[in-house]
């Protein structure tokens, strides 16, 4: 039975926004310290790029196979269970005596970090529809803050002391958060749902095929997050090559994405009031302008700074707009819809990481920018062919 939204206090929304940030940060710690990891294990930069890709593929796998469980089980307990497994994975990465153990730990960190994507449809489920965009914008601003601070934290700490301590401290942060969520996170009003895991997973293809707005959001998310990872997977290499700077600078530059954090609630309000098609178009424009700047004047620090601000702004416009579309679909399938969208989203991130690190190894910065152009062309074609709704409303899966 479909219960009505119960609403969330501002304090609760803020807590869950912080939670998504801390949880998703675990996935991104590796990016600024790839060079340090490569040196520690005596492997190539391309090899550590594969490890980073496996971590994101693990996240994508968790999105596909674990996040749909939110439509069956009590999300209050499911989120805490996944966080417990995440803490164990972080401790394994800290302890790793060789590259094989670290690779397995990195993959498990990716899988278990999907707890953040169980929180997002949970928040949407508990929020009245007329305020859903604003609430989602706030929670997603927390998620982006976690991504940004993870880059800075990891890069700066890695330059000052052993990179392994990044994962030990992440485990401690997660343990503290787990205790707070256990005390203050809202209980799931649905309780346990009487559905089999097989039927829920088996319904994913039908949900994707039957919902054209979900298809559009998935394609756009794949391309725009792929573009974002094209930069962040290679920025540390570019800074070392162009300026002879270490991982700490890559971490500091990550703080420039605070623009996207500040704009996230505003983006949510724009989606509620106007058109997600408009805000998705803006996301493509900002991302395209960013890589024009990277390609033409990326060798100048000011060019890098302006481009990073535009890119993170474009990424946030895409994320908030697409999530608002996805969460406006069938409430009883909210976790599965989010699973499909975020699987596509992080599949794009994995492709962006893999293709850009390969392009850097063979063609340098120009090759990296060409990879971004490919993603942007596909996103633009999809934007016109697979049109998003002009206005949001409650949509049925059969629409």
From TrEMBL:
It is a multi-pass membrane protein. Keywords: Membrane, Transmembrane, Transmembrane helix, Transport. The keyword Transmembrane helix applies. GO terms for cellular component: plasma membrane. Its main location: membrane. GO terms for molecular function: transmembrane transporter activity. Residues 12-391 form the Major facilitator superfamily (MFS) profile domain. InterPro entries: MFS, MFS_dom, MFS_trans_sf. The chain crosses the membrane at residues 12-30, 50-69, 76-95, 101-123, 135-153, 165-184, 219-240, 252-271, 283-311, 365-385. It comes from the Bacteria. Signal peptide: none annotated. It is found in: Cell membrane. This is Major facilitator superfamily permease.
